[in-house]
TrEMBL record:
<protein>
    <recommendedName>
        <fullName>BTB domain-containing protein</fullName>
    </recommendedName>
</protein>
<dbReference type="InterPro" id="IPR012983">
    <property type="entry name" value="PHR"/>
</dbReference>
<keyword id="KW-0963">Cytoplasm</keyword>
<dbReference type="InterPro" id="IPR000210">
    <property type="entry name" value="BTB/POZ_dom"/>
</dbReference>
<dbReference type="InterPro" id="IPR038648">
    <property type="entry name" value="PHR_sf"/>
</dbReference>
<dbReference type="InterPro" id="IPR011333">
    <property type="entry name" value="SKP1/BTB/POZ_sf"/>
</dbReference>
<dbReference type="Pfam" id="PF00651">
    <property type="entry name" value="BTB"/>
</dbReference>
<dbReference type="GO" id="GO:0048813">
    <property type="term" value="P:dendrite morphogenesis"/>
</dbReference>
<dbReference type="GO" id="GO:0021987">
    <property type="term" value="P:cerebral cortex development"/>
</dbReference>
<dbReference type="GO" id="GO:0005829">
    <property type="term" value="C:cytosol"/>
</dbReference>
<dbReference type="Pfam" id="PF08005">
    <property type="entry name" value="PHR"/>
</dbReference>
<feature type="domain" description="BTB">
    <location>
        <begin position="1"/>
        <end position="39"/>
    </location>
</feature>
């Protein structure tokens, strides 16, 4: 396009099939190593990354789509995942769709060993000590929980632990081995895989912003989730 035998000889080069904001995000990554992804342009950025063969940026786009997915956009992302040939994203779409169908039919969540996640950011530096999770809706039960905290796909903290659910609608804490420090205004991904009684309580239509003391937490992916609480200290 710019150099070599096929370089354009025009002063201005038009790229009509790529969104300008997405193209700018790609240039920032290529030249500044800066990951500037937004939910409203992530699909367009993924298209640009695929077109110009920028695999790490494409992977980051897919990670954002997976963690911010909800019942409202799962069907749209399903068709896009097939177009972009991203089988992992396709599988995640089907999991969200399947979970929502089960949840609405029975007013309960079915684990089936799936990974559930939310993406969040805080406006101050905090230390994430663990998560509060829902428990069994069919009497007392014990769960094994694999918890992870990630940033741009990199695991910052993880733990494999067990907790006992008494059958109530309360949440139950699970802890990391060591608290994980997070930076302000930076998005992180909280992930959990549970093994135990299949039917459980679940959150639905959660809040995208929560004020806790002097800390504000913003999150995405609040449609029918299994991580209702972040346990942290400032």
């Amino acid at each position: 396009m710019f150099y070599g035998e096929l370089a354009e000889d025009k002063g201005e080069i038009r790229i009509p099939d790529v969104d300008p904001a997405a193209f700018l995000a790609m240039l920032k990554y290529i030249y500044c190593d800066e990951m500037d992804l937004a939910a409203v342009t992530v699909l367009a950025t993924l298209y640009a990354a695929k077109k110009y063969i920028v695999p790490h940026l494409a992977r980051a786009c897919v990670n954002l789509l997976e963690t911010s997915m909800s019942a409202k956009n799962a069907c749209v992302l399903l068709s896009q995942s097939c177009l972009f040939e991203e089988p992992g994203l396709t599988q995640r779409c089907w999991e969200v769709i399947d979970a929502q169908l089960c949840a609405y039919r029975s007013n309960q969540w079915r684990y089936r060993g799936r990974c559930d996640s939310i993406q969040f950011a805080v406006d101050k530096r905090v230390f994430i000590a663990g998560f509060g999770l829902h428990g069994s809706s069919c009497g007392s039960a014990e769960y094994s929980a694999k918890t992870e905290l990630k940033r741009q796909g990199v695991v910052l903290g993880q733990n494999l632990s067990k907790y006992f659910s008494d059958g109530s609608s309360n949440t139950f804490p699970v802890w990391f081995e060591y608290p994980v420090q997070t930076k302000q205004d930076t998005f992180y991904t909280a992930c959990v895989i549970l093994d135990g009684n299949e039917l459980s309580y679940f959150g639905l239509e959660g809040m995208t912003e929560v004020q806790c003391g002097k800390v504000t937490v913003n999150s995405t992916g609040v449609q029918g989730r299994q991580i209702p609480e972040l346990i942290f200290y400032a």
